[in-house]
Amino acid sequence: xxxxxxxxxxxxxxxxxxxxxxxxxxxxxxxxxxxxxxxxxxxxxxxxxxxxxxxxxxxxxxxxxxxxxxxxxxxxxxxxxxxxxxxxxxxxxxxxxxxxxxxxxxxxxxxxxxxxxxxxxxxxxxxxxxxxxxxxxxxxxxxxxxxxxxxxxxxxxxxxxxxxxxxxxxxxxxxxxxxxxxxxxxxxxxxxxxxxxxxxxxxxxxxxxxxxxxxxxxxxxxxxxxxxxxxxxxxxxxxxxxxxxxxxxxxxxxxxxxxxxxxxxxxxxxxxxxxxxxxxxxxxxxxxxxxxxxxxxxxxxxxxxxxxxxxxxxxxxxxxxxxxxxxxxxxxxxxxxxxxxxxxxxxxxxxxxxxxxxxxxxxxxxxxxxxxx
Length: 373
Fold this sequence. Notes:
Blueprint (H helix, E strand, L loop, with lengths): L1 E2 L10 H15 L5 E5 L9 E2 L2 E6 L8 H16 L4 E4 L7 H6 L4 E5 L11 H17 L2 E4 L2 H11 L4 E2 L14 H5 L7 E5 L8 H11 L5 E5 L4 H13 L3 E4 L3 H9 L3 E4 L8 H8 L4 E4 L2 H6 L6 E2 L4 H12 L5 H14 L2 H15 L14
Parallel strand pairs: 1-5, 2-4, 5-6, 6-7, 7-8, 9-10, 9-12, 10-11, 12-13, 13-14
Antiparallel strand pairs: 3-4
Helix pairs in contact: 1-14, 7-8, 7-12
């Protein structure tokens, strides 16, 4: 049973993307999977994703309370349903781990990153998230971390070891069609792309300022994602003032074309667990520009791809330089092959199943991903 996600398809967020790729594969490996999803994000008619059953559990659509209420109701449902393993995702929902243990459930918690570091949270939400991290990492039968950075942080802060099982990448077929990018006025291989939620830690405002400073001839900037509140409004205003293409949240054929035909991918964020967006960009063969935070560095891009987080001038210089690098089919294919072999979702599913087996008393070996060389 899965707890801690909004839904399993068509929802913006790294945890949801992780779950959408992981659980259908676990079902194919023989697991009977039921995912507890939140009512505001899952239509009533949406009852399955492949072989995964979806159970809609009510939650308010209110920042700071949505995950907490859903997690409390979800763990009570789990206590009644008695799954073999309850797999909780993210440190916020993990606050219910002691309650799950009191009800006799076997619990696995995946730590996707220290969410309390996100700029949007106030002191109360941060305290809840820190409590969730401590309780989840202390009382779970097994802990999974999606990056070495998180493994080390859990050991240092909580004194617990965890299994390193990263996010993954999917081998994609590159579309030749361009009608979706043309609809936004974009030209093939002549735009920078960012795909993420519109939130302060993703640093869209800095990216817009850097692009305005660099302004490579003939290049555009496309920002894909949605957000709410003051920061999202500022990004929209700044983007329109600088001629940035703001597509909103996209999925399916539109997103595939946006990835496939970009000239380079940019992620200037200040907070990540292990960014699925970079892995998706690499699976489409894109060169990547990223901030030098530990989670981005862990992916192992060439040193020239990184810039100091928050340094708009350095980012502008990277944009100017990458715009001058010609597209080489061999380099595109090398990126695609490396990322799907190193961050293979099928292997990740097998590693996760091995954790379940160990929790249930049937251990098997866990293998860590190879470094990018």
